[in-house]
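A further point concerns the way the authors explain their paired sequence and structure data. Nothing conveys this as quickly as seeing an actual entry. An entry of this sort, consisting of the sequence and the corresponding C-alpha cells, reads as follows:
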Amino acid sequence: MTISPKLKLFLGLITILIFISTLQSCGIYKPVDARKVSPNDEERIKKNMKEGKGISIGKVFGESGGTFQFSSSNEMWRATLEILDFIPLSDVDYGGGIIITDWYTAPKDKMESLKIMVQFLTNEIRADGIKVMVYKKKCQTEASCESFVSNSDLTGEIKLAILKKAALIKKEDLEKKN
C-alpha cells in the first residue's frame, strides 16, 4: 500500500500541530537568576509545590486521590473511627458522611445490645456538625427482641469524645505542618 505525497504532507502537518499544541502548555522558557533562587533543594521544592509547579508521577499514570465531600473534616472521620474501634462496623460511607456500627453486646449483659450511628452534617469540627444516635435492643429471649432509639447520656458522651479527639487530631496535624 502506497501513501500519496499529499496524504504524507497532511499527516506530517497534523503531527507537527499536535506536537506544538502539547508543548504550548509548557510555557515560554524563562531564564533564572541564581541570586533570586535558593541553592537549598528543599526550599525550592517547597516553593514550587506552593506555587503548583512540577509534576507528580501519580498524575502521569492516571492515579489521583479524588475529591471527597468530607475531606476537610478528615479529623472528624478519623476521630470517630478511633473512638468506635471496639465495635465492628456495619456500614461506612465516607462520601455520604455516615458510620453505622454492628450490634454490640457487652459481655456482662447478653440480653442487651447497642448500635451506634454517626452522621457528619458539616465539614467543620462543631457540636452541631455531627449527629450521634444510639439504638438499643433488649431481648426477653433470643427470639423476642425490641429495638428503640436510646436517649441515654451515652449519645452525648460519644459525641463529646469524638469532638475532643478530632480537635486533638487537628492540633497534631497543624503542628506537623509547621
